[in-house]
Inverse folding.
């Protein structure tokens, strides 16, 4: 019955940054890959400011696995830009503006030590004299990161994928998946695949087979503004980030909101982000627009990677929270090795850490798979 179906090694659901880099990795290894994506403009990846920052949060914590993932991501996006004939990466310095003398001392104590040393280009303890910048306690200049124009990058890849036939811009319906020992068949697309990978971001919650890991949607907003006179030489970071977008435009992000989410039209996020912007510059600004998206956040703030405990044809590649842009490239390489049977996942990111939450009862309540022969 399924003999006229096209056969793929991997069927990926989702072409946000996660699905996009995993598809490229698997295709690069010679696998036959088909990606389904409903290209929603509010997908986290299309809204994200694309910042890759070695520092996380107020306390100057070092970003998880930054040494392994950041240099890899920078090289990755450079190479991808060359391949697509456009540059999507800006290796801009990030100025972490100190909010107090105490923050300044904290950073000075850390800066000389590894792993900080490689990422700190300099520290200003005096007020930073730059037109329109409020930095009375100085700041730390961070290198090794930057920002990626993710929406444009995904659009370029999608054009390539739809033209070459490895991407279908359609909604994938899990209820139409039928499995057997060799993999799955998906009748609406007339395709069979040995493996399926859920790369749906926060919408992985809608995949009936991954309802058990503690994935929580987290709403975020980014404000586009025009601030004539503000330097575009750096990303500013204090509470919020202010990412240069060219021609005097900037993206100010981001809010974090757990359900219930702000309704469409709510001005709360804009007010919060403008407050943060005004903490960094007194220059006049013009609001250009607000974008909202939903992050795939995990309870322990680590990604969710790896095989389903009971369905050997099914894996997940997601849970990237607020760090998908910097984490996804290196982890796609790791997951591709793992799927090829050549490597292990980092235990902190392996979905196996939550297998205890998976139980027969959960599976029983889910749609059962029909078999085909
Ligand atoms: C406001 C905001 C700002 C952010 N800023 C940054 C930042 O500066 N730096 C950073 O690293 N990260 C940032 N993030 C986080 C980052 O966006 C995420 O970590 C990352 O985009 C997650 O990528 P993903 O591919 O897993 O999910 P998504 O981007 O959500 O992509 C999933 C894709 O799957 C598709 N899909 C879902 N279900 C189906 C289905 N049934 N059939 C077909 N397709 C389907 C969706 O439509 C979507 O295209 C930000 C997030 C938000 C919301």
């Amino acid at each position: 019955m399924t003999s006229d179906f096209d056969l793929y090694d991997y069927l990926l659901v989702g072409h946000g940054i996660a699905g996009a880099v995993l598809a490229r990795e698997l295709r690069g290894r010679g696998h036959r890959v088909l990606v389904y994506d409903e290209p929603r403009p509010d997908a986290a990846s299309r809204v994200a400011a694309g910042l890759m920052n070695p520092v996380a949060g107020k306390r100057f914590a070092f970003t998880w696995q930054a040494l392994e993932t950041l240099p890899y991501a920078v090289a990755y996006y450079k190479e991808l830009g060359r391949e697509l004939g456009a540059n999507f990466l800006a290796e801009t310095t990030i100025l972490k503006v100190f909010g107090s003398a105490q923050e300044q001392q904290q950073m000075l104590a850390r800066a000389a030590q590894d792993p900080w040393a490689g990422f700190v280009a300099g520290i200003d303890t005096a007020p930073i004299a730059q037109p329109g910048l409020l930095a009375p306690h100085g700041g730390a200049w961070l290198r090794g990161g930057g920002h990626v124009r993710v929406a444009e990058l995904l659009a370029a890849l999608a054009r390539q994928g739809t033209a070459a036939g490895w991407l279908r811009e359609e909604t994938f319906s899990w209820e139409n998946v039928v499995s057997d020992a060799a993999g799955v068949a998906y009748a609406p697309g007339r395709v069979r695949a040995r493996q399926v990978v859920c790369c749906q971001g926060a919408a992985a919650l809608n995949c009936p087979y991954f309802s058990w890991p503690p994935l929580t949607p987290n709403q975020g907003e980014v404000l586009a503004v025009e601030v004539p006179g503000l330097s575009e030489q750096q990303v500013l970071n204090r509470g919020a980030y202010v990412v240069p977008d060219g021609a005097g435009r900037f993206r100010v992000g981001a809010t974090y909101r757990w359900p219930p989410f702000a309704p469409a039209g709510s001005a709360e996020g804009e007010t919060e982000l403008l407050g943060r912007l005004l903490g960094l510059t007194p220059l006049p600004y013009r609001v250009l627009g607000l974008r909202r998206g939903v992050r795939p956040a995990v309870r322990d703030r680590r990604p969710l990677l790896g095989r389903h405990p009971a369905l050997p044809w099914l894996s997940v590649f997601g849970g990237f929270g607020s760090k998908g842009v910097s984490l996804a490239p290196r982890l796609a390489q790791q997951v591709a090795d793992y799927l090829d049977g050549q490597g292990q996942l980092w235990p902190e990111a392996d979905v196996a850490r939550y297998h205890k939450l998976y139980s027969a009862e959960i599976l029983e309540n889910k749609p059962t798979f029909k078999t085909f022969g």
User: Anything to note?
Assistant: Residues 215-296 form a domain with the D-Amino Acid Oxidase; Chain A, domain 2 fold (CATH 3.30.9.10). Confidence is low (pLDDT under 50) at residues 367-373.
